[in-house]
Amino acid sequence: MPKSAIHEMTQLSEGIEDVAFLSWAKPTAGTPDHIKEAAIKAIAEDKTGGYSTPAGIIELRNEITKKLSKVNHIEASPGEILVTVGAIEGLAAAIMAVIDPGDEVIIPVPGYSTHIRQVLMASGVPVCVPTVEEKGFCLDVDRINDAVTKNTRAILFSDPNNPTGSVYSKEELESLAEIARKNNLVVITDEAYEYFTFDGYKHHSIAALPDMKERVVSSFTFTKTYAMTGWRVGYVHASKELISQIKKGHITFSICAPVVSQYAALGALKASQQCIDDFREHYKNVRDLMCSRLDRLDRVFEYQMPRGSYLMFPKIKLDEGKDSLAFAKRLLKEARVSTTPGVAFDSEFHVRMSFCVPEKMVNTAFDRMEDCFS
Ligand SMILES: Cc1ncc(COP(=O)(O)O)c(C=O)c1O
Predict the structure, then answer these.
(1) Which of 203, 221, 353 to mutate to test the pocket of ligand 1 (most atoms within 8 A of CB)?
(2) pLDDT tens across 234-287, in order?
(3) Measured between alpha carbons, how far is 240 from 232 in angstroms, rounded to an integer?
(4) For residue range 118-167, what is the model confidence (pLDDT) as tens digits?
(5) What's the maximum distance between 2 C-alpha atoms anywhere in the chain?
(6) Fewest C-beta in 10 Å: which of 39, 74, 107, 244?
(7) Residues of the chain with CATH 3.40.640.10
(8) How far, in Å, CA of 357 to CA of 374, rounded?
């Protein structure tokens, strides 16, 4: 397995003083106080020192079913929920459960590189199908259809997308669902950024489409929604049959999600959801600032306006962009700006930039890049 370019850049950035970070996909805001207080209360009541049931505490799974019904239009029972160590562990366990060695998994790209690695770790074969950059990195449904073979077992994607910021329309998801039904495929989703869409674009869960619930594994997380990266708590929804298989991997990976974090997550779901609106508003403002600063550097970059997530994937117009790692290293060394090279997502001529940062960070980064390219 090759070294991750994301982590290589993070390591290199750590060695440099006063770096403007546009490379991290973690919210810079802290976890809201009411969520921390829910965790502290659970600790004080001595509820957190032991394992929970592997599927997760029942109070949390009950709240998750309410959220799934209200937000995702997925009618679920607590037996169809597995609380996991972030979305990542849920996805790893789901992929292990769904595919056998040699099975092909279709992944629209650019996509989240961890998905590809998870398929490889399960001895599967990632089949990367390019999206259409000029149309906002939308799905190329015909190419996905053509990529299906007798060995295809699943389609796996993040929506809203890391790294492109695309948000799939209901029509795109309906076409994917049709391919899945026709070829008896499982769909595995990563909906980590479900709440962060802008300009009237909406996130849709493919599991809510007719006849899809039984063939979709939907993964969600508290990480992005509530700025809880370090708490490591997320969840997966699937049919009872699939959940019982995914649970086998989940137990071998982790036994259960951290119990203190499960109580924090319960606190997050039960309280007002205002913090999500505040985060979304902040990300939209920073996205707009980043795009206006990119417009001033149009000799170097062109971009598709991100409709969701807090990430964007500008194209490098300069010839040197053909080695995106070298380009990102140059930005780091000469401008002290940390970005993630496109090669980390199998796409040279691009860098990923995160707008989950303070506005000041964006201005510093772009002031430096303007100097560097002047
Ligand atoms: C698309 C996507 N999925 C999952 C994760 C990680 O989620 P978690 O912290 O819940 O494991 C990330 C983090 O950057 C991500 O971008």
Answers:
(1) 221
(2) 999 999 999 999 999 999 999 999 999 999 999 999 999 999 999 999 999 999
(3) 23
(4) 999 999 999 999 999 999 999 999 999 999 999 999 999 999 999 999 99
(5) 60
(6) 244
(7) 50-270
(8) 25
Phi/psi at 255 (nearest 5 deg)?
65, -60
**pTM of the complete model:** 0.96
Cβ atoms of 214 and 239 within 8 Å: the answer is yes
Tokens of 81: 């929920």
- Give DSSP secondary structure letters for 145-165: HHH--TTEEEEEEESSPTTT-
The length of the chain in residues reads 374
Q: Tell me the H-state helices in the chain.
A: 5-14, 33-44, 58-67, 86-98, 113-121, 141-147, 170-183, 222-225, 240-254, 259-270, 274-296, 324-330, 359-372
Residue 273, amino acid? Q
**Strands 104-109 and 152-158, bridge-based pairing:** parallel
How many angstroms does the Cα of residue 45 sit away from the middle of ligand 1?
A: 30
CA distance to 238, 299, 325, 348, per residue, from 322 (Å): 41, 16, 9, 5
CATH class of 50-270: alpha beta
Q: How many CB atoms lie within 10 A of CB 330?
A: 14
Say if domain 5-25+275-372 classifies as CATH 3.90.1150.10. yes
Give residue 87 CA to ligand 1 midpoint distance, Å.
Answer: 6
End-to-end CA separation in angstroms for the chain: 39
Instruction: Give the residue range(s) of CATH 3.90.1150.10 domains in the chain.
Output: 5-25+275-372
